[in-house]
Amino acid sequence: MDDAVKRLAAVRSDIATAAADCERPVEDVTLVAVSKTMEADIIRPVLAAGQRVFGENRVQEAKAKWPGLKADFPGVELHLIGPLQSNKVKEAVGLFDVIETVDRESLVAELLKELPKEMARSGRIPTLLVQINTGDEPQKAGVSPKDADAFIESCRARGLALAGLMCIPPADEPPSPHFALLAKIAARHQLKVLSMGMSADYREAIQLGATHVRVGSAIFGARPPGREHG
Ligand SMILES: *Cc1c(COP(=O)(O)O)cnc(C)c1O
Predict the structure, then answer these.
(1) Backbone angles phi, psi at 201, to 5 degrees
(2) How far apart are CA 123 and CA 111, in angstroms?
(3) Whole-number pLDDT of residue 1
């Protein structure tokens, strides 16, 4: 069997165990298979094995790979998990089903402009999550936790519907306090979707309420260096 397909099965089984351990229904946790940097031919067997939810971190790369794959495998749900530049919003709202990285006022303004046009064009628009920079890391995208309440309220006041929050904890710290912080901010705003947990820490994230775990290397194997969160 294909290595990625084998690893997919192992991750699914781990997710089921982690959910059972904290008495959560396994259906409450969606596996987002992070296929960034992977060629379409590597993704195909994973689609054939039934996986339908995928994450990509670059608009251009997703645009090159996914229209063809979507045509062959109906029911794909594509998540944007990397930073979104304002000049790519138009493309992104057409291509992605979920945008996990809403993180600044200028992007909100661009989304408010493009979402009605996309709705008129295709009859659907992406679900939106706000990225929170839980570790307040200067090099990382996302809204600072201290600004999160005001940002979420401002999005809503301007008419942008939000479904939840996403975070990428600092690489050199235990992730659980960051997951707990994200869950706390979400609860304060009645936001249901919590995208948190990657290959190294999705089990902890599930314990702390993750509804979506974003798992790349544990399924597809190691990526070329320098393509982590850019
Ligand atoms: C690359 C990436 C992941 C997946 O990371 P792995 O450690 O390979 O599971 C998850 N989330 C984001 C935002 C990423 O950029």
Answers:
(1) -145, 25
(2) 16
(3) 75
Pocket of ligand 1 (CB under 6 A): 34, 36, 57, 81-82, 168, 198-200, 214-218, 228-229
Residue-wise pLDDT for 151-170, tens only, equals 999 999 999 999 999 999 99
Helix axes 40-48, 59-72, angle to 10 degrees: 40
With residue 184 as reference, give the H or E element that holds it.
helix 176-188
Domain boundaries, given as residue ranges, for the chain: 2-220
Q: Ligand 1 centroid to 121 CA: how many Å?
A: 31
Ligand 1 closest atom vs CA 101 = 13
pTM score of the predicted model: 0.97
What's the length of the chain? 230
CATH topology of domain 2-220: TIM Barrel (3.20.20)
Query: Looking at residues 202-223, what average pLDDT do you find?
Result: 97
Closest C-alpha to ligand 1, atom 15: 229
Ligand 1 centroid–CA 58 distance in Å is 12
Amino acid in the structure at residue 220: F
Measured at the CA of 164, the angle between CA 184 and CA 47, to 5 degrees, comes to 125
Q: Mutation test of ligand 1: which of 100, 198, 229 has the most ligand atoms closer than 8 Å to its C-beta?
A: 198
| 158 Cα to the center of ligand 1, angstroms | 30
Q: How far, in Å, is the centroid of ligand 1 from the Cα of 117? A: 30
Atom of ligand 1 nearest to the CA of 229: 15
Per-residue pLDDT reduced to its tens digit, 32-61: 999 999 999 999 999 999 999 999 999 999
